[in-house]
Amino acid sequence: MSKNENSKKDQLEQFTTDDRGQKLTTNQGLKVSEDEFSLKAGERGPTLLEDFHFREKMTHFDHERIPERVVHARGFAAHGEFQVYESMKEYTKAGFLQDPSKKTPVFVRFSTVAGSRGSGELARDARGFSTKFYTEEGNYDLVGNNIPVFFIQDAIKFPDLVHALKPEPHNEIPQAASAHDTFWDFVANNQEAAHMVMWAMSDRAIPRSFRMMEGFGVHTFRFVNEAGKSHFVKFHWKPVLGTHSVIWDEAQKINGKDPDFHRLDLWQSIENGNYPEYELGVQILKEEDEFNFDFDILDATKLWPEEEIPVKIIGKMTLNQNVENYFAETEQVAFHPGHVVPGIDFSNDPLLQGRLFSYTDTQLIRLGGPNFHELPINRPVCPFFNNQRDGYGRQTINRGPVAYHKNSLANNTPEPASEAEGGYKHYEERVEGHKIRARSDSFKDHFSQATLFWNSMSRPEKEHLIEAFSFELGKVGSESVKQQIVDMFANVSTDLTKGFAESIGLEAPQHGGSSVTKSSPALSQENTVKSPATRTVAVLIGNGFNGEEVNTVLAQLKKAGVVPEVVSETKGKIKGSDGSELEVDQTFLTVDSVLYDAVYAVGGNEGNKSFFKKCALFIHEAFSHFKPIGASEEGRALLNLDNMDNSPGVVYGGAPEDFAKRFIDAVAEHRFWDREVE
Ligand code: HDE
Fold first, then answer.
1. Is 415 helix (H, G, I), strand (E, B) or coil?
2. 69 is in an annotated binding site
3. ipTM, two decimals
4. Distance 75 CA to ligand 1 centre (A)
């Protein structure tokens, strides 16, 4: 049996090295006797060219950087595995979707889109959600986003979109933000973006955690079964913890307090054994139903409402191991929507078709040549044989003189496999048409689903959308662009445009509005799973706390999977009135209210005004972000501000067990929007 019961981890281990405890050598294996002083002509003399150790060390350093990804530069990844719940044989012959007892290794990379590699993670942006399945039939990459639609319909517009979204070229401002003139100018002049812009201005674009966001394959793909029958399919990842977001004020502050907030959250959850889980869902559509909808299923600016085409949950992915080395794994992993396995095929979505070109092309410059598939993270777990040879960094030593097909010297091998032997056969879709540069009329409705999205939002979600438009357009300088956007989004909803027009100094349009009344409850995060598991709670506490009460509450919280962190004025231990001790995890200097899901105000440090003030500020901020707040008997004094103690989601009183139960319920609720916040 393999050491890790995971063939990818076994494979990676062959390439893993541990330098600890070893003698320092050059890359040629020569032991080095001195690593602090270059070789000089005399103690105060110039460095000598012959110092090969210095030259090698410096040269390697000088070449350490590779170009960051042109989009999705900032990302974070982890290993895991995937298991299907039941055989999907009826729809697809994909080997990894057949046997529920089989675990397929996966590597998943999450990312923001617009920012550079070092940018803050709480940008308002789509998130990438790329999964590499290391199957026995080769690598299958599901390269998705956390938003089910895209800005554009045809890949030829992607460079324009990205140029408009990225920092403006003359001054490289702003970083990791769509709140600037060129992005909104692009939107106004490419109105197919309307639907995705609605998502990008919604809470979806500021997730609470990579562990709490959905993933979507976006395009329509095909499942093809053994008999060659094809169904259209859309892929979904559903996080077991539900889909949750922060609010914009927090997002901006988190970017300052902890720009690594999302990666740290993922890293720590995995280190603590709180393995992130996502269920794989598919929407399956018969070929004959292709034209039965009021949208074109090949149009990537459209989603398939889950109420009309249900999401069938077919398996689960668990992320259970952090990387050993960020660069070797996360930075060098190369995803490609064209990495498919038998049983999964493409549709004619023009956005997908263009992606099928772009992903290999971009790796050639990013990873420096055509052998990037040999990098440990990119290698399939099954063997691979062909007549491709040479190129920068080639590692494989292909034996023998034959590197061509057909041949007789090697018995015509490596030879193509028949379909029965696992050879990939493209679905034989019948196509015909004139060569034209045009777009189908069925792609021309840009607003109905944008309105569907708006209609599906809860009151707070609508308010957040209005605030996001107000913020973003508030940062736009061009009056004309702002006016175009107001006019454009009046086609989606005049409630929306009324909501933000005034705040950007424009008149709400009188015309417009939409006749779409349909909504899709699945789109609202109000209807998501609510769980206290892995939620973080700041325990604000000082010496002299009520030991019995606090210890009971903390034990209950941990039992429910909540992660409490003790926050006090100084590190070290604090003592309760009963002599019990607590280790302080963080101080008011090292953390901030915005970094937690909830607050448990315990108090202590009687008479210490500075402590009281810091607690009060911390709690007040959590309150204004609609977060659950629990208070001990003593901590109640901290709730006097703003009449907090009469507000929803503020919990206190009762026996400690009873209090803990109510507080845990509140933590699961995530936010309390019905709070009056001044
Ligand atoms: Fe990508 N995209 N994309 N994209 N994309 C890249 O490939 C591209 C699109 C997505 O974690 C690049 O390796 C084109 C949709 C993710 O490493 C590049 C078009 C969706 C990632 C590229 C799209 C995505 C990328 C840059 C329009 C959601 C990060 C680096 C036709 C379904 C992958 C790289 C990772 C990365 C091209 C549109 C998702 C340049 C041309 C739609 C998650 O090849």
1. coil
2. yes
3. 0.98
4. 12
